[in-house]
Structures are given as C-alpha cells and as structure tokens.
Write a structure and sequence with these properties.
single chain; alpha/beta; 11 helices; disordered N terminus; 7-stranded mixed β-sheet; 13% strand
C-alpha cells in the first residue's frame, strides 16, 4: 500500500524573512561549554602531572642549578615567550618597573635583554647588563646594538650574579643607584644569597635633607627593583605549581613555585613594597640595604655576605658532587641489569633453538 501523497498547503506561503534572513550562529549550551573547558583543564593537568613524574624525577630544587637550560633556548627565547608576556601584561609590567631606574643602573640576569628598550637615558647615567649564559648575553648585545648603533652608556658581562659584581667605571667607589632583576629568582639555586649579593652592589643610602620628601625623592635612593613569578594566593594553584615544577625546571630552567616573599624576607634585606598580580603569581618588589649595612657597619656586612656566598657555593658543589656519584652508581646498576636481562634472553633463544 502506497503512502498517500500530501497535498501542498496553499495557505502557507514562505516569506523572504523565513527563507533568506541570516541565521545567528548557534551557541553551545552552557553545560557543554563548561564541561569542555573543565575537560581541557583536566587534560592539561594530567599531562603536566605525568611529565612531572617522568622528567622531574629526582630533581632537587635545593641543589639543582637549572639555569644552563637557557644556553640552549637563547635563540628562540624571545619568540617563545613574547605572545604570553604580551597577553598577560608582563611586558607592560617590565616597562613600568624599568622606567623607575635612575642614576647608575645594573641589571642582573638580563637574559636576551627584554627590558633594554625601556630605559630612559635622560635619567640613567650608565647601564651594566650581566647574565651567566653567554648565548643569552650575545642575543642581548645584538639587540642593543641594533637599536643603539652608538652603543650608548652600556656594558655587558657574562658572569653569575652570585659572583662579585662589576664595579663602576668612574673613580667613585659608591655602587649602583638602581639594581634590576626580572624573572631571575626562579633559576638560581641560592635565591636568598642572589638578592643579598645584588645588595652588595648598591650605593649607601643618602637621607634627604627635606622632611617632606615625596615618592619621587624616595625613588632616588638606592633600590633593588624586582619583577618575579612564584607562588599564588590560592592553595589549589600552588598545588598545581608544585606538581609541575620539577618537569618545568628540567625543560625551561625555571622553578616557578618559589615563595618570592619568603625569599625576600630570608635575604635579610629591607622590604619597602610588595605588589602581586595574576592570582598572586606575579610579584613586584622594592628592596634596599638593611640598617646594619649602612654607615660604619657596611664593610662588615659586605664581608659577611661574601663569606656566606663562598661557603654556600662550596656546600652546593659538594651536594651536587654527591648527587652526581649517586646517579653514576644508579646508572651502573641499570646497565648491569640491562646486560643481565640481555644475557637471559640470549640463553632462552639458545634453549629454544636446541629444543628444535
């Protein structure tokens, strides 16, 4: 039995609006969107957790100097981080920080020179840039020469910021007016002493005669200006940072779960200001010499600081040597196990062939 033919409904006449009007794009239902977002977050968390257990196995933040990773990434570093820094506003924060620099300026852990374009040489008398990665310094130097053909009042040094800092060229043994470091505390094995050693390069504070000093007057006093990343305000985010930190350090040379505020307090320097953004993971700090490093106590404080750094370096080298020996022993055990397993397989193959 055939289906009856449906007669057209003459009373229905499609209008131009019904047939030709542009249709608004359909939106995903809210539960679907939220579910997809959560699935993406959980997937990323799972990947990072897996990498943390594989790549970061046995990595100890107290003994591991992972800064050498920057030698391999110097050529692509700017391209790798530029989009993220622009999107999150880090570049703007860099500019705001660097434009506070005055007088003789030292920038430690300069990397590829991501801050160099922001210095105001109407206020900066000289600029000294240093980093322990030779490859990073070469990129920074090439970038500087491209934008400043006459070189300008700028010097480059390849050295660790834990070593004695370069002296000023002038005859005055007074130190630097501003010392800047950005995204630096994550890659040194001794962040507290890193800050303390930077402070040895500061000029002694000179109190202003006016009792009504403004903020502009205060910034002229010697300062360490920092822009760093580390722990958050929120425990759930800190847990994620902790889990992923070892693998991130192995790949990128950065321990991104450090408590920057605690590091600053343990350095013994005077904390003038701390501001935080991005759930508390981006830190901006202003530090200065402690009271005991001023006046007649300055030389003793400098000597004590240098002694602590030398001793800590020796202790670190000893720990790293012991870890190196342990790793060699573990490698030897794994090699013997692999040789034994290979011999067993060969014996099984011989037995099979003999049986046939």
């Amino acid at each position: 039995m055939s289906c009856p033919t449906q007669r057209p409904n003459k009373s229905f006449q499609p209008t131009a609006t019904a047939s030709t009007a542009p249709q608004s794009p359909r939106k995903l239902p809210r539960p679907v969107f939220i579910g997809g977002f959560l699935l993406g977050v959980l997937t990323c968390y799972g990947i990072y957790t897996y990498k943390a257990t594989v790549l970061g196995e046995g990595v100890d933040p107290s003994t591991s100097d992972v800064s050498c990773r920057y030698n391999a990434t110097a050529g692509t570093f700017d391209r790798d981080v530029d989009f993220t820094e622009r999107w999150t506003g880090i570049i703007k924060l860099r500019q705001e920080l660097v434009q506070q620099a005055r007088g003789h300026v030292l920038e430690a852990a300069v990397g590829t020179g991501r801050n160099s374009a922001f210095y105001d040489f109407d206020r900066v008398k000289s600029l000294t840039l240093l980093d322990q990665s030779k490859e990073m310094v070469e990129v920074a130097k090439a970038k500087w020469q491209e934008t400043n053909p006459d070189d300008g009042p700028c010097r480059f040094f390849t050295q660790s910021a834990l070593d004695p800092l370069p002296a000023l060229l002038d005859s005055e043994d007074r130190g630097y007016d501003t010392i800047i470091a950005t995204m630096s505390l994550c890659s040194t094995p001794m962040p507290q002493l890193f800050l303390r050693n930077l402070a040895t390069g500061l000029a002694p504070s000179i109190q202003t005669a006016s009792t009504n000093s403004t903020d502009a007057d205060k910034i002229l006093l010697p300062r360490i200006l920092l822009l760093e990343h580390g722990r958050s305000h929120y425990s759930w985010l800190n847990k994620l940072l902790d889990v992923t930190a070892p693998s991130h350090a192995v790949e990128h040379g950065c321990w991104w779960n450090r408590d920057i505020g605690q590091i600053a307090r343990e350095s013994g320097l005077k904390i003038l200001d701390i501001r935080r953004k991005h759930f508390g993971t981006t830190w901006r700090l202003e530090l200065e010499l402690p009271d005991e490093a001023q006046g007649s106590g300055r030389q003793q404080w400098l000597a004590d600081t240098r002694e602590k750094i030398v001793q800590s370096k020796a202790d670190l080298e000893q720990k790293q040597s012991e870890i190196g020996k342990q790793m060699k022993e573990q490698d030897e055990v794994r090699r013997r196990d692999a040789d034994l397993e290979k011999w067993r397989r060969e014996q099984r193959e011989k037995m099979k062939k003999g049986g046939n």
